[in-house]
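Hey, I'm writing a tutorial for new members on how sequence and structure tokens pair up, and I'd like a real worked example in the thread rather than a made-up one. If someone can provide the structure for the chain below, I'll link this post from the tutorial.
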Amino acid sequence: MAWCTTTLRTIPCLPSFSEERRDFDRGRIHQKSGNHTGQERGSFRYNDGMRIGRWIPCLVGLVLAAGIGFVVHDDESIAKAEPQPAPIVAPRVLMLSGHPGSTQTQLMVASAGTNDTPKAIATLDHIPEAVVKGALLPGGNAALVIADTIPSRELSWAASLMIIEKGQPPRKLVEGVYHASRPLVTADGRVFVQRGKAGKNLSVDGHHLAMRVDDLSIDEVDLATGSTRSILSWKGYETHLAASIEHEIIVYRVGPQGADLVAIHADTRQLRVVVPSWPPMARDFSVDEPARAIVVQQLGEGPVRQWVVERIDVDTGKRQVLATSPHLDLVPYAFPDGSVLVNPADRRGPRRLGASHGIQGLDGPGVMWLRATSEDRAWMTGTWAIPGSLPVGIVVRASDGKVVTVPRVEGHRVEILGLAGGAW
């Protein structure tokens, strides 16, 4: 099995550490062509996010940038780590935990900053090697999980959305959900998922002539009945739920004509274009709330191909480059104050752009993945990945960047969903 964290805010997002990123980039092309073996990264797959393997040739240009280091743009300052403050008492978290290759994943509650053994509160069944991701409803008292449940050689639409509530077994809400995707939960508890149906493969003598175009939709799901309501229907390679800001759902679309970023009103379904044309490689979306903007990692469009972190105004579409690097593990994340976390290529630890405080309490080189912000904007949750070891769950205090780790079950992979509510 495999998972990735989600957000208590309204921001689903993408994959994991650098080697897992390479699986992400090539895994989808295997599945699209029907040649997926299920054996990447040993017995554990990280086919996270979107099917962008088809654009891997674009990455050849990154080799030209190998000698170029991390660059901060537009006078964005980098906050340095300061002497560590006194220990803090972090809140409890909900996390997905399981052994690689298993057919089950446990939802567990854990106390960050302690050595207490996490407590299993529910068990989710799925197919072997499933990718499992989730999000929490506001209040943290129910978990929404997407997992592969339908045995299939081609897994694009083999996942289901399930809800887990205290004292109740997991309840399936809807099938036909996009593989390795994550539900988008808005601030008022509305739930949206990516769904679709496979199109026709165009091939001659077993050789694919073009990428398959699928029938895609963004659907709102009724948590009581499992009924759905589509706010977007589209033909293309894929859609990705990037974020929600007030009443609009931000969607990244990739199709034969390229990629764009659109905003859809959740009630009226009115669509407006935010970015009309983009390279089809955007990932790691988060929301800069003070600026009403999206922060995202994207492949640069200049003559020397490298990764860029951009801030995009969702009202005007204006794009601001914050940082560049030849390394694809920048993994940006917007803090509640508008500062932005990045992981520079030097692997000396994460940094915050535009903040007076850095990140405190981490040892050694690695990559930080933040995926959830608490409703009171005081905490963020995610994972810390060091080469050669399993990722560690973390909780970060927004005010000063102080990091505390989350205990886990030995030998299990963990992904932190967010802060646990009082019901658990």
